[in-house]
Design a protein that fits this description.
It comes from Saccharopolyspora spinosa. InterPro entries: ATP-dep_AA_Ligase (IPR052032), ATP-grasp (IPR011761), LAL_C2 (IPR040570). By secondary structure, this protein is α+β, with helices and mostly antiparallel strands. The chain folds into 3 domains: about 100 residues, Rossmann fold (3-Layer(aba) Sandwich), CATH 3.40.50.20; about 80 residues, ATP-grasp fold, A domain (Dna Ligase, domain 1, 2-Layer Sandwich); about 210 residues, D-amino Acid Aminotransferase, Chain A, domain 1. The protein is about 35% helix and about 25% strand. A 4-stranded parallel β-sheet has the order 3-2-1-4. The longest helix is centred in the middle third of the chain and has 18 residues. It starts with a strand and ends with a strand. The chain binds adenosine-5'-diphosphate and magnesium ion. The site of adenosine-5'-diphosphate has 19 residues, from strand 6, strand 8, strand 12 and strand 13.
Amino acid sequence: MSVLLLHKSNESRRRHLERAAAYAREKRERLLVLSNNPTWEHELADVVVSVNTSDIPATVGAVRDLAASESEPIRAVAAFREHSVPAAAAVAAELGLPFVSEQAAQTVRDKYAMREALDAENIPQPGYGLARTIEEAMEQAARIGFPMVLKPLIDNDSMYVRRVDDRDELVEHFAGIQRGAWGGSASDPLYAWAVEKYEDAILLEEYLPGTEISVESMLCDGKTNVVAVHDKPLPMEGPYFADVCFTTPSRFPEDVLRRVHELTAAAHRAIGIDTGATHTAFRIQEDGTPKIVETAARLGGGPVYQSILLSTGVDMVSAVLDVASGRAPDLSAQPVPTPTGFYLFFAERAGKVSALTGVRDAERSPHVHELALFCEVGSAVDVPPRAWQPHGHVVFTADSGDELRRRFYGLASSIQIELE
Ligand SMILES: Nc1ncnc2c1ncn2[C@@H]1O[C@H](COP(=O)(O)OP(=O)(O)O)[C@@H](O)[C@H]1O
Ligand SMILES: [Mg+2]
């Protein structure tokens, strides 16, 4: 038997692939990886096929060829990156394996279709509308009200998601966001389909105030299990929304978290997600009402995997592969969660890296469990809104929630990317 991962090379997913390789060894299965531009993936998998995973028919064709050349049947298909979800759904449909349907994979990546699906089930969310021109945007603004958020219809990583506070800001930023949104998603597997459906429209949403949380769930047999909730304790009020700090367990009261759990399950049903991991963002309104920002049919990015493992003991990569293989996942959490957080850091401005300060000290700390750097001395780095991948991340634990926050501020002040 073998496990097939659809992938797009990204350093922040190395741990996921390492764990998938160990999983395959434990189960005496082969690990097959299909990826755009594979490099280090070759060290981990039994077979690596280089294919443009943005091209869904090409990916399905490559899997067909691979399946024909393998002596063992493919038992599972999985994806740890947003980009690869639609192709994984198509491959799963072709091979008759468990995964979200192609329809659900499309709805969940099409932010307007997702809003419509959530509306049909009365799930609390921001007001929204489409606009192709500034005139249409003004009409939508009259209905939605300011502040508003402008965003691409497909794509992720908070690219070109921008708050605008009034008509002047809308006029100033509409065309730039529209251009960036479509230019930025040209390599997306759903790009051609989305252009056909929306031409050059972007999505306009009512701005939701409140603390953002990120909910990691695992669905098996159609049932939603919330495995971890991370708070994003720093204010995220825009105009851009780069993720910086996550902490878990959540500090919201039990009744709010119960509602979050219900709404996450309801969102899955509304969109048609019935299996695998999901990553859902909410903003908690002042009165405690959660409103959904969005959901994705995959595990949260980069350090979320390690953070869940440290705080709950649940290994989400194993769980994803178990569910994909038709096995029951082990989602039993340790009785008391370990306060865990992660910090996604950026340079302060664009430039060439001259030194990385505080990194060695952080690495030596017994509270730091993972430190990843995605730049080195001499690298050219850019910052939001032009670049969205953080330049590194650090995952850390503490004995209490308060200590965790102090530790975050300590790391945030000591880790510095110095520029020439
Ligand atoms: N309607 C909204 N109100 C307030 N903040 C929002 C809204 N939509 C998006 N954001 C902020 O922008 C971030 C990225 O938007 P999102 O829709 O999740 O796009 P992406 O797919 O790029 O992650 C969110 O995590 C949130 O912080
Ligand atoms: Mg998001």
